[in-house]
Amino acid sequence: MMTKRIALITGATSGIGEATARLLAGNNFKLILCGRREDRLQSLKRELEASTEVTTLSFDVRDQQAIATAVASLPAAWKAIDILVNNAGNAHGLDPIQNGSVDDWDAMIDINVKGLLYVSKAVIPVMTERKSGHIINLGSIAGKEVYPNGNVYCASKFAVDALTRGMRIDLNPFDIKVTSINPGLVETEFSLVRFKGDKERADLTYKGMTPLSGKDIADIILYVLQAPAHVQLADITVLPSAQASSTVVKRS
Ligand code: NDP
Ligand code: 8X3
């Protein structure tokens, strides 16, 4: 039987990360599930252990020391991480730049950009040492096009796009693949977080159209990971059929 690859997934407690964990569990991967909500990590671990080996690391991606300590604490059998899915992230607020909240700006830059860097910093040495690995960064259509009131969230995802390209160049000598996946509207807890728990407003985001699901993105991640060794999917943008761009969405 083929050896199972070890995948570390950030933001595994919800949405795209959780769906990816569920799909990879049944497809010959061992999982390191990460997130802040320990109760969700533990219940997902219990569920997925029926299919594969699972361990968890609970940290805030804003805390570089906590990440370094958590990754260093992995038992020997878990240290050789093959795949890093940099998925943790969210939008906070949707306001014109002149009204934006500094707390929201800090959250998006600290989580989506610096958090992705901190987790990468902890994991990349394992990959460069073994001259093997695959990093998948969750970008967004918001990292390809700016939309009204998206300002800082878009900037954070443009940064993810630049970091993905930079990683692909710098890690090329080490045979490490780097992929970005850039979804449009995916119905997860994303809008609930963006609108600070206002479910009515969150639901309006997907009104009159069929959004993507976390499972749709997980399917793409699995496809990317199952490509032959010589194939590197570099940059994938995926939209619901009803969405043509950040701002053009056909609704009934
Ligand atoms: P969810 O809100 O459903 O999931 C976000 C995940 O990120 C949660 O598991 C959460 O875990 C984790 N997370 C958030 N903040 C932190 C933090 N400070 N430290 C550690 N983990 C954190 O959203 P999605 O699944 O939709 O989002 C996943 C990624 O996909 C994000 O990067 C998002 O920008 C991107 N994306 C989403 C789209 C969408 O329309 N939904 C479209 C394009 C891209 P916990 O709270 O337990 O820490
Ligand atoms: C999430 C997609 O269009 O809401 O990154 O910014 S969008």
Structure commentary:
Belongs to the short-chain dehydrogenases/reductases (SDR) family. This is NADP-dependent 3-hydroxy acid dehydrogenase YdfG. The protein has helices at 15-25, 38-48, 64-72, 102-130, 151-170, 190-194, 199-204, 214-226, and strands spanning 5-9, 29-35, 54-58, 83-86, 133-138, 176-183, 235-238. It is α/β, with parallel strands linked by helices and 252 residues long. Strands 3-2-1-4-5-6-7 form a seven-stranded parallel sheet, sandwiched between helices. Helix 2 (38-48) links the parallel strand 2 (29-35) and strand 3. The structure holds NADPH dihydro-nicotinamide-adenine-dinucleotide phosphate (NDP) and 2-hydroxyethylsulfonic acid (8X3). NADPH dihydro-nicotinamide-adenine-dinucleotide phosphate binds at residues 10-11, 13-17, 35-37, 60-62, 87-90, 111, 138, 140, 183, 185-186, 188-190, 193, 214.
